[in-house]
């Protein structure tokens, strides 16, 4: 009986090279950061001290002011999100290759990529010389920064639409406007609305960060409190941010689920187009 040997598994040089590159990058990053690992030993004790200072004795007198500042952060996030949606929705239709030519779609996508590459904080710093340390700076920074993200999500939704409603419109000789109104919009608007609400949740956190540089909202109050070692105000502000963000996330999440659940797009029929 002859000895049979299984063929050797070929070496996946590409996968091995990528794995090695990632490992080298991680090690190089850890060395470059010069992290003092011994500080981790003192971390539990330091957290206990900070927690005692922040949450040990809270001054209730500052509660109304901090709630008002949190509401300002939510307002900044909401208005900024609406501004982003106002621009992202029409631009996303121009970025979808199944609706327009590839050159136009490619150009609009590059605009989205550029806007997504710039963090909101950098946008806010660039806008401060023009609009000053005001909530308007935070609104515009969040709005401009969100256009790129929403635009990308929107045109991906548009490119994934079903062809049946469009074919039904073509079957009755519908013009481009009717084709768009009844074949495209009913399929994409529910998901677009869901993405707008999700981006609103993200922007609430961004608006709190905007306050750290003086662009309005509760982040400004927390930063001022930490600067002057007013630990009680800082702790209460952090709790309000956490509670407010969780509350808005829960409400927005329920709304998004309801939108998606009720968005079963029905297939367009020639009768509906003619109507």
Q: What descriptors fit this protein?
A:
275 residues; mainly alpha; MetI-like fold; globular
Please provide a brief summary of the model:
This protein is an all-alpha fold and 275 residues long.
Query: What is the average per-residue confidence, as pLDDT, rounded to a whole number?
Result: 81
Helix content: over 70%
Overall CATH class: Mainly Alpha
The H-and-E topology, N to C, reads as: HHHHHHHHHHHH
In percent, how much strand structure appears in the residues?
under 5%
**Count of individual domains:** 1
Written description of the protein model:
It contains twelve helices and no strands. Helix 3 packs antiparallel against helix 4. The longest helix is centred in the first third of the chain and has 33 residues. About 3% of the residues have low confidence.
List the helices and strands and how they pair.
Elements: H1 13-33, H2 39-55, H3 63-95, H4 102-117, H5 120-131, H6 135-159, H7 164-171, H8 176-183, H9 185-212, H10 218-227, H11 231-261, H12 270-274
Helix pairs in contact: 2-11, 3-4, 3-6, 3-9, 3-11, 4-6, 5-6, 6-9, 7-8, 9-10, 9-11, 10-11
């Amino acid at each position: 009986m002859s000895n049979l040997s299984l063929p050797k598994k070929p070496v996946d040089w590409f996968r091995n090279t990528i794995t090695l590159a990632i490992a080298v990058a991680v090690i190089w990053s850890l060395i470059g950061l010069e992290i003092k690992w011994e500080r981790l030993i003192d971390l539990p004790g330091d957290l206990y001290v900070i927690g005692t200072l922040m949450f040990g004795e809270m001054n209730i007198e500052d509660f109304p002011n901090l709630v008002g500042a949190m509401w300002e952060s939510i307002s900044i996030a909401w208005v900024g999100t609406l501004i982003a949606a106002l621009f992202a929705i029409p631009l996303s239709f121009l970025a979808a290759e199944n609706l327009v030519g590839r050159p136009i779609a490619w150009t609009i996508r590059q605009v989205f990529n550029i806007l997504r590459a710039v963090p909101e904080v950098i946008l806010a710093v660039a806008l401060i010389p023009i609009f000053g340390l005001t909530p308007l700076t935070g609104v515009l920074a969040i709005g401009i920064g969100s256009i790129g993200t929403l635009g990308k999500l929107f045109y991906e939704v548009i490119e994934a639409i079903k062809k049946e409603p469009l074919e039904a419109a073509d079957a009755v000789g519908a013009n481009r406007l009717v084709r768009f109104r009844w074949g495209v919009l009913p399929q994409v608007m529910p998901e677009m609305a869901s993405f707008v609400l999700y981006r609103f949740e993200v922007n609430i956190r961004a608006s709190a960060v905007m306050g750290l540089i003086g662009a309005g909202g509760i982040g400004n109050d927390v930063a001022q409190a930490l600067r002057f070692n007013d630990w009680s105000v800082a702790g209460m502000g952090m709790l309000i941010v956490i509670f407010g963000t969780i509350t808005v996330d829960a409400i927005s999440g329920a709304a998004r689920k309801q939108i998606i659940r009720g968005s079963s797009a029905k297939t367009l029929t020639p009768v509906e187009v003619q109507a």
